[in-house]
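Dissemination and training. As part of the outreach component of the grant, students in the summer workshop were shown how a complex can be specified as a set of sequence lines and then modelled as a single object. The example used during the hands-on session is reproduced here so that future cohorts can follow it. Participants entered these lines:
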Amino acid sequence: MKNVIVGQSGGPTAVINSSLLGVYKTAKDRGADKVYGMVHGVKGLLDREVVDLSTRFKNDLDMDLLKRTPSSFLGSCRYKLPDIDGHEDVYEKIFSLLEELEIYAFFYIGGNDSMDTIMRLTDYGKKINSPVRFIGVPKTIDNDLALTDHTPGYGSAAKYIAATTKEIIRDGLVYDYPVVSVIEIMGRNAGWLTAAAALAKGEDCEGVDDIYLPEKVFDIDKFLARMQSLLKENRSVVIAVSEGVKVADGRYVCELSEHVDYVDAFGHKQLAGTARFLAGKVAEKFGVKTRAIELSSLQRCAAHIQSRIDVTEAFNCGGAAVKAAFEGRTGLVITLKRVSDEPYMCITEEADVHKIANVEKKVPKEWITDDGTNVKTELVRYILPLIQAEITPLWVNGLPRHIRLHSTSTIK
Amino acid sequence: MKNVIVGQSGGPTAVINSSLLGVYKTAKDRGADKVYGMVHGVKGLLDREVVDLSTRFKNDLDMDLLKRTPSSFLGSCRYKLPDIDGHEDVYEKIFSLLEELEIYAFFYIGGNDSMDTIMRLTDYGKKINSPVRFIGVPKTIDNDLALTDHTPGYGSAAKYIAATTKEIIRDGLVYDYPVVSVIEIMGRNAGWLTAAAALAKGEDCEGVDDIYLPEKVFDIDKFLARMQSLLKENRSVVIAVSEGVKVADGRYVCELSEHVDYVDAFGHKQLAGTARFLAGKVAEKFGVKTRAIELSSLQRCAAHIQSRIDVTEAFNCGGAAVKAAFEGRTGLVITLKRVSDEPYMCITEEADVHKIANVEKKVPKEWITDDGTNVKTELVRYILPLIQAEITPLWVNGLPRHIRLHSTSTIK
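and obtained this result:
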């Protein structure tokens, strides 16, 4: 009898539930008895919050809805396992729970932080000769995982960013006076998401004027000089900027603001965002109308505009994880290998979790223009296949229908 | 020979180009010779910026793209005509241009400010016995036009707001610690758009916890007390608030912020938004994680999620305007009359422009709960038919395809 358990960790994506479905269906197809879900990841597991997924996915409609539901069906956590040395009690607790549930394989859907969990459990399991297999399923809108061509979740976020950027560009052109729109896009250290704004440009769209990634030092004076020259030639200027751009001394641009929004209960100053700061600078200096637009959480939860390629790959990564475990392998993360660009072909592979956990993959400097104001064609060519094709929402009464999220179940 | 001219004015919507298409196609069907477009509304007309639309819409694909393209194809303006008395020169200029172009009818697609233009031109035309007919075509995401059941543009904005609110609610539930998300929605004086957040609630969604419209006085202390009680019962609290909520002394909530983002070239203080202010208050007081989400321009330009009902009605209003003019009527605005709710049936009617220009229709107090923290079922029942059915974007290479906007043409 083979029971398996699966959890979701870190920030959600528009397709994280497709990976969950990939694990669930493949495990069932390969003869798994029970497929358990950890509620709120390994943190929930420690609290014995576990759900039997077959009681939740009753029919094909449930699974179709699951694929189209944003956010993590099982809930998530940002919990990192402690060092094994000195915290054996935590690991003993987890492994005794896994034994109690007769778990054959443990799957964790997450980013580089979450892969740390797979790594530590693999290492502890080896130490105690546990038969449990541990496999990581890649997930993050940030696309910053090492050794994989890209990560599930990124394609849909990129599609959302490109599509809304096109709409914002259209909107900016409406009036006959100058407007500078600054679009702030997620990605604290890696510019993959912000780079997706480049896809807006095409036969039917002028594209954004500048793109600023955190991989290059941001220079406020050069930025303002650039705005001045853009404003000479354009009625509407649209800029895409990563929330994580930093100036030469290492401070985030948003930290340059003198204006604190509020101080939270932990004493942390909450600062105006990067877009607001830059829009403010432009308004002050050139006296033009500016708009600061934060794409905000929608980047990770806009399931109404999923990339079908992304949905399929997310599902396949879940399936490949089960295959690897059922063939006896452990301590791995599933990766994606691009075989060709045109036509786009991509297969799953496996990588040692130790080479992926806690490593951050940034945009190569060669894919950014030398003056740091845009990205090169190579980067556009890299992203474009990942946003291809659509998956139609199941519209009910005018709105996309979702599946209800789990309700917590505790093992008796 | 009948030439007509059409302009778009005020803020754009996701369906303002469907009204343009309704005017264009109906005028052509009814035998109009030339259909001119004013580039940037009446302001552009005064500068002789006029385009012959038949040179721009060459085939059915152009028209299908036009319907799906957000923002105003012809460009817009916020220009209001001056009083006739003392500014006869402006009116003489416009009417001599209309004579030169042999214009039979003048259509203006816009909100209550834009209808002021139709009213003044009608009045001046009458004074000089001009044969030109003037007809207004309703448009505004704000839904604040008098005498019409609703306005084209509102349904698509409401659909976008409801769909993204559902996604934000899902996203908020991911973690196992308390989060308060404050969604800021457009509508300076009328709460129609913010009310659309109520549609998120359904079989598959908990809905937002509170909805605050500008029609009711906003009380910060009551709001904080309410948040305290919601946080006792919920892990994730989601609030929809209009950008225009005001406290008892008449100040906007966002004006209460002590923190000025920047001072623009005109000396105007740019304040943090309503959502940021409220999220800050909650974070300060209760020490919980908060998120301030401004739906921003996407409310008016998210054409990738149009309501089909809205597209159809926008087109029909354009068509009805041409019909009225070609049957000899003038000084009118097309209105929508809801004949029944279930099944939803709606027809076009006509109203005297003097009764619509500059009038703002607010949400009736009876449709808001007495404590001002939510809307009543009547309001949900009113909005629901307007977001029904979809119109699929024309996806090309992973993104919705648009039509290129006009390039300015000047009459020789």
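Chain A touches chain B through 82 residues (CB under 8 Å). Students were then asked to discuss how this feature might be tested experimentally.
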